[in-house]
């Protein structure tokens, strides 16, 4: 698997470093006065300072549940997802959009999911699968 790159707007680089580095455990890469790179499960995420760009996401529906659009995140194997979910649930400073749950239970593509917001209001989804072959199952 090759990593993807995503550039996204943030309102403050210091709070963004704290959230992605300390809360999500991302390694911090290169940075400047206007951007910082993070390693999110092997993917290059570039947070760019854009205080005026933060906007609330609108909602779409997946499996009958409203989800924020746009959003980004990572697909994880179930053990990694459980570790992340447990760590996030133990904190009292998480802006939850959707607490950990299982979607499409008993169907092809069954997945665990959770949604949170970063300090700039960006919506993130983390999905957990028993195997990566399930990601595109239908």
Automatic annotation (TrEMBL):
PROSITE patterns: VOC (PS51819). Coiled coil: none annotated. It holds the Pfam family Glyoxalase. InterPro entries: Glyas_Bleomycin-R_OHBP_Dase (IPR029068), Glyas_Fos-R_dOase_dom (IPR004360), VOC_core (IPR037523). The keyword Oxidoreductase applies. GO terms for molecular function: dioxygenase activity. It comes from the Bacteria. The keyword Oxidoreductase applies. Keywords: Dioxygenase, Oxidoreductase. PANTHER family: PTHR39434, VOC DOMAIN-CONTAINING PROTEIN. This is Dioxygenase. It comes from Mesorhizobium jarvisii. The lineage of its organism: Bacteria, Pseudomonadati, Pseudomonadota, Alphaproteobacteria, Hyphomicrobiales.
